[in-house]
Amino acid sequence: MTAMRDELHIRDVAPADAAELADLLNAIIARGGTTALQDPFSAEDLAKTYLIGPHVHCCFVAVAAATGRIEGFQTLVRNPPLPDDIGDIATFARIDGTQRGVGSALFAATKARARALGLTAISATIRADNHGGLAFYGKQGFADYAVARAIPLKNGEAVDRITKRCLL
Ligand SMILES: CC(C)(COP(=O)(O)OP(=O)(O)OC[C@H]1O[C@@H](n2cnc3c(N)ncnc32)[C@H](O)[C@@H]1OP(=O)(O)O)[C@@H](O)C(=O)NCCC(=O)NCCS
Question: The CATH number of the domain where 51 resides is what?
Fold first, then answer.
């Protein structure tokens, strides 16, 4: 018998998700090599910055219908250097997750909400060494927009940052 792919339920984040999402994100930060974030988040800081704070346009979570576990989240925020009608996106899927399609399912919801909010584009800034992240946003329709050269990590290593944009 073949295993059926778990269904994902996409919904808006709730304040009660903050602790589970901080654990999910902190595991990605601790592993290193993908996200540009380097310091772990408390649930409170994560909520303020990415989940329900004043700069957040929207944040969706992907819940595995079979288990109720959150498999990933995607946030779209106002980032002051960008014009008000361009949201800045970040996407995180569990490192111990087995499901494919978490990021894509989240992006369908984020894109629809961004359009409904009247945004004109979504911007994603990705480390140049994050090949998975670059491929993921490329697959969602993002095109290269700008490169910031040799931005240092805390350990001194310099890594380019690639900004991609998806027009809405
Ligand atoms: C990037 C990330 C969000 C992708 O999430 P995901 O749930 O694995 O993405 P999906 O399964 O929806 O992938 C959609 C498509 O993107 C591409 N893709 C995703 N991850 C990829 C990888 N590691 N390598 C190559 N292509 C990849 C593939 O084309 C994939 O389609 P396919 O499965 O049909 O081949 C996830 O790997 C992650 O959380 N990474 C760590 C954090 C991070 O780097 N976030 C991005 C910067 S904010």
Answer: 3.40.630.30
